């Protein structure tokens, strides 16, 4: 483990169980920092965070104020792409996801906490839980759905169906790669690409064009814009994943 990295245990209020979690993680060799009741500067801790853990109160889905606190904490952590683990009651999870579908991609551990499961889950979160985020921008919902199914085991995948929706999404949510349809109505792929490169928050995000035209002329037209790559819409799952791995590894 790198020196100076902490597991931040975020509590709505101190509890005996939370203290036991802190003790177990310390015994496992982690540097644990507990935060209780002060949630305004969570984002600033990201550079020193190995993992954030939020210990949720019981019946949180029935308390609008507690849900608002969770939204605030999650939004701060989400903007940093730091790994997150939620510990809560099993019955609350589906309602939390219904409230905020981003939580579907967050690691979860049921209460009451079994300490051996805690150790395994934390280890998994640290070393495999930080999935890269990919945004699909395509006005064809069938392709977007298929591509999402292909990628969801390896990546956190989101999709929007227009260029302007993509810009709005990206100004709020950072991603690691954008799959951009070259041919879209109203605002086409090249126009969206240009806007992405002009915006400071998005100019460095790798962009891979999606195109249905596989001719030499068509590919040359796409690559003339100097994206980070292109993928034919007739591609296979294996080819898609191989391309993504190559671009993300750069």
Q: What topology does this entry show?
A:
Blueprint lengths: L5 E6 L4 H12 L4 E5 L12 E7 L8 H15 L5 E6 H10 L7 E5 L3 H14 L4 E5 L3 H11 L4 E5 L2 H10 L4 E5 L7 H10 L8 E5 L4 H8 L5 E4 L4 H13 L1
Parallel strand pairs: 1-2, 1-3, 3-4, 4-5, 6-7, 6-8, 8-9, 9-10
Total count of strands: 10
- Tell me the β content: 15-25%
Could you name the ranges where pLDDT drops below 50 across 5 or more consecutive residues? Answer: none
Average pLDDT over all residues? 87
* Number of structurally distinct domains: 2
Which fold name is given in CATH as the topology of the largest domain?
A: Rossmann fold
What's the main sheet like?
A: 5 strands, parallel
Biggest sheet: strand arrangement: 2-1-3-4-5
CATH architecture name of the largest domain: 3-Layer(aba) Sandwich
Order of helices and strands: EHEEHEHEHEHEHEHEHEH
CA radius of gyration is 20 Å
- Label the structural class: alpha/beta
Please give the alpha-carbon distance between the first and last residues: 24 Å
CATH hierarchy class name of the largest domain: Alpha Beta
Q: Label the overall shape.
A: elongated
CATH superfamily heading of the largest domain: Response regulator
Continuous helix count:
9
Assign a percent range to the helix content: 40-55%
Report on this structure:
With about 250 residues, the chain is α/β, with parallel strands linked by helices. The protein folds into two domains: about 5-130, 3-Layer(aba) Sandwich (Rossmann fold), CATH 3.40.50.2300; about 135-250, Response regulator (Rossmann fold), CATH 3.40.50. The chain has nine helices and ten strands. It has helices at about 15-25, 65-80, 90-100, 115-130, 140-150, 165-170, 190-200, 215-225, 235-250, and strands at about 5-10, 30-35, 50-55, 85-90, 105-110, 135, 155-160, 175-180, 205-210, 230. The strands form two sheets. It has a five-stranded parallel beta sheet. Helix 6 (about 165-170) packs parallel to helix 7 (about 190-200). It is elongated and about 65 Å long.
């Amino acid at each position: 483990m790198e020196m100076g990295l902490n597991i931040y245990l975020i509590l709505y209020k101190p509890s005996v169980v939370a203290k036991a979690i802190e003790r177990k993680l310390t015994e496992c060799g982690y540097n644990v920092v507990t935060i209780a009741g002060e949630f305004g500067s969570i984002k600033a801790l990201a550079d020193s965070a190995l993992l954030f853990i939020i210990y949720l109160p019981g019946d949180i889905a029935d308390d609008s104020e507690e849900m608002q606190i969770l939204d605030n904490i999650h939004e701060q952590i989400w903007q940093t792409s730091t790994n997150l683990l939620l510990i809560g009651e099993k019955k609350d999870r589906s309602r939390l996801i219904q409230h905020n579908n981003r939580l579907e991609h967050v690691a979860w551990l049921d209460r009451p906490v079994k300490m051996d499961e805690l150790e395994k889950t934390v280890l998994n979160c640290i070393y495999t839980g930080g999935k890269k985020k990919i945004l699909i921008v395509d006005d064809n919902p069938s392709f977007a759905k298929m591509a999402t199914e292909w990628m969801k085991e390896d990546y956190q995948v989101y999709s929007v169906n227009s260029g302007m929706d993509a810009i709005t999404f990206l100004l709020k949510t950072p991603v690691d790669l954008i799959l951009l349809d070259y041919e879209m109505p109203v605002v086409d792929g090249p126009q969206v690409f240009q806007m992405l490169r002009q915006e400071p928050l998005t100019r460095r995000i790798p962009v891979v064009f999606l195109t249905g035209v596989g001719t030499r002329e068509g590919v040359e037209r796409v690559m003339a814009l100097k994206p980070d790559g292109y993928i034919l819409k007739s591609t296979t799952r294996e080819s898609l994943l191989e391309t993504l791995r190559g671009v993300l590894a750069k």
